[in-house]
Amino acid sequence: MILVTGGAGFIGSNFVLDWLAENDEPVVNLDKLTYAGNRENLASLAADPRHVFIQGDIGDADLVARLLAEHRPRAVVNFAAESHVDRSIHGPEDFIQTNIVGTFRLLEAVRAYWNGLPEAEKTAFRCLHVSTDEVYGSLGKDDPAFRETNRYEPNSPYSASKAASDHLVRAYHHTYGLPVLTTNCSNNYGPYHFPEKLIPLVIHNALQGKPLPIYGDGQQIRDWLYVKDHCSAIRRVLEAGRVGETYNVGGWNEKANLDVVQTLCAILDELKPRADGQSYAAQITYVKDRPGHDRRYAIDAGKLERELGWKPAETFETGIRKTVQWYLDHPGWVENVTSGAYRQWLETQYGGKQ
Length: 354
Hints:
Strand content: 15-25%
Helix content: 40-55%
CATH architecture of the domain at 2-188 and 226-251 and 293-313: 3-Layer(aba) Sandwich
Distance between the termini: 50 Å
Number of strands: 12
CATH topology of the domain at 2-188 and 226-251 and 293-313: Rossmann fold
Order of helices and strands: EHEEHEHHHEHEEHEEHEEHEHHHH
CATH superfamily of the domain at 2-188 and 226-251 and 293-313: NAD(P)-binding Rossmann-like Domain
Strand order of the largest sheet: 3-2-1-4-5-6-10
CATH class of the domain at 2-188 and 226-251 and 293-313: Alpha Beta
Largest sheet: 7 strands, parallel
Oligomer: single chain
Structural class: alpha/beta
């Protein structure tokens, strides 16, 4: 049995689905079900006895302690986080509460549980914390990619809160001996991605005939990682990672935002052409850049490959095509998550910026 937190969100739900597709080890899934957590992501597991879902908060220490005592997991994988930079700029307090206070309370509950385990179970136990490349700050055009030894230089309330959570995880290992692992990933994309982030937002807006908003000049560079590759990396780190170590997870796919959007438009032109025969690229609209927008992220995932033999299975070209096809095949999922609250958020974020 493993306990997964945040397992109804984008990356967490993909991880749970892939975990149960790969093996029969049961999953207890704890998720608060905020706007980005979606039970529909897990609909295929509704009748699966290997999946136990509990709606709740990692900041609820009593609940977490009760789940640990009842289910006795051999590992905890923590995806639970507020994760959107733009939302952190508009309202940073939720990020402080979930990413810092929530992680602290989770660690306290896990530490108490771990201390009470029999010695053999205590030795085998792992707590894996999933984090982001944004804790490292921003890179210049010619700077080498982020390595695990880069110092932390977070530039947004989101990345600062994740950096704090990483520091807490590290401290609980060095102070208390808690057997932790940390992964820092680059930008994920793929199925079940809430359409506030660039790739699903562009796909959704393109099909709705709406503008495709590009911040600034669109030359912000990100390393793109297909979510199922990320899930396989986490499984590998949980299986064989060295206790106390950090592993960067990346796709070796640096792309400018504008290039990503143009690629999406070209695939949509092919798979679902506009009725008027024009390219979806005609819908590209430039909007005012967000405050403190980091210019470039890039992950050096060489340590993960050297130590654990992991490499991504998808190129950006194969992964992005699978992603577009998934959204075309699942219009009902998109319709259900793009509620009135979502539309209000888009107006808050992009309205009046053109």
